[in-house]
């Protein structure tokens, strides 16, 4: 069990090498205990440091009660990963750290101002030029520098949680400072929203005043043009001339239809009278009550004549009398038909006169409607401009009311909340006496074992001639 040496024709005696550890165990143990004791003393004398943390949750805190429009739509975007990381930078910004330093008066504490109680060694290093003089830096910057050294702000992976860690020699300050930083951050966020709303109202107020004047001018132009053009509006917000033209056109169509119907009926009655044909084919004749009664009497006489013809001759006085009455009824029916025809002709003539008048009126209104249409186009353009200005003004007014309602800082919910506040730790996180002393003991043992092995190896006591060497 030997390893061949490349420098000489000798072998390393491993048994002799490791036997040196047994021979020197007391020295190794004593040195390890001395190192462990020194480590214990240093950790015992070291200033303890305490650490506490505050946790923030970035979330949208608007509700139906805090939205100006009263809606329940959670459509505001939640901050993405880059947005949350940006908030980490805001939390550790100089402005927030300054607020906390001033609030807690950290400049009076030696822990945050190394120039207040500089150790003798540090003073000597400064005098020798080996270390920069902290007095050359303004006190406020010295405090901020120390705060950044002790502060750790980070985002919990795959979440919108931000952790604010702070270490201090004072356990009370280790909890107070991260809590104060979180409170300052929330205050800054609220102030930013308030300033944003104030800027919005300051910008909207003169814009609304200017828009109000423009809306008034635009609506005044509409009213003035309507008065100058004599544009009268009818029902359904249409020009009166156009509406009247539509009504007269409908009336003209109805009058023409009535005239044509009366002329056609009168012509049918005239042909029936001239040709001696039956009037039963003319509905208007049959609808006359007088003609209907005469027709009923005529049917009754024809029935009587037919009954008497079975027992009496045609020249019998009674039959001749009945036939005379029947002829008289025919004349009465024709006379009534002629009267009906004359009435229809009169009705057609009246309708013709009315039609002529309506045609004249329609032609007149066509010219007026065409002129009114041109004026209506110009009026519509003015109205569209006025409507557009009015809608823009209403949108600005809505935004102004929303911004004004949010001027109260207590009303504005900040998109972050503290869900875990720091508490004063009871045990320091540094130094850890047991782990440090244990590591010192194990490390010193290993180091002394290696040193002993190297001494034994280099002294030659662990060497022996190689087998076959001369």
Task: Give a written overview of the molecule.
This protein is α+β, with helices and mostly antiparallel strands and 470 residues long. Among the domains are: 1-46 and 431-470, no CATH class; 235-405, Helix Hairpins (Orthogonal Bundle), CATH 1.10.287. It is 65% helix and 7% strand. The longest helix has 89 residues, at 317-405. The two termini are 21 Å apart. Residues 1-7 have low confidence and may be disordered.
List the topology elements.
Blueprint: E1 10-12, H1 14-23, H2 25-45, E2 50-58, H3 81-91, H4 94-104, H5 120-127, H6 139-150, E3 151-155, E4 161-168, H7 171-229, H8 240-274, H9 283-286, H10 289-308, H11 317-405, E5 416-420, H12 433-459, E6 463-465
Helix pairs in contact: 1-12, 2-12, 4-6, 4-7, 7-11, 8-11, 10-11
Can you give me a brief rundown of this structure?
With 470 residues, this protein is an alpha+beta fold. It is built from 12 helices and 6 strands.
Which structural traits does this protein have?
disordered N terminus; elongated; single chain; two-stranded antiparallel sheet; 470 residues; 12 helices; Helix Hairpins; alpha+beta
Shape: elongated
**What is the end-to-end distance?**
21 Å
Arrangement of strands in the largest sheet: 3-4-2-5
| Share in helix | 55-70%
Average pLDDT metric: 78
Query: What's the multimeric state?
Result: single chain
Q: Give the SSE order as H and E letters.
A: EHHEHHHHEEHHHHHEHE
* Strand content range: 5-15%
Query: So what's the CATH class of the domain at 235-405?
Result: Mainly Alpha
- The number of helical elements comes to 12
Estimated radius of gyration: 58 Å
Q: Please provide the count of β strands.
A: 6
Please state the structural category.
alpha+beta
CATH architecture heading of the domain at 235-405: Orthogonal Bundle
- The low-pLDDT segments are 1-7
CATH topology of the domain at 235-405: Helix Hairpins
Query: Quick one: biggest sheet?
Result: 4 strands, antiparallel
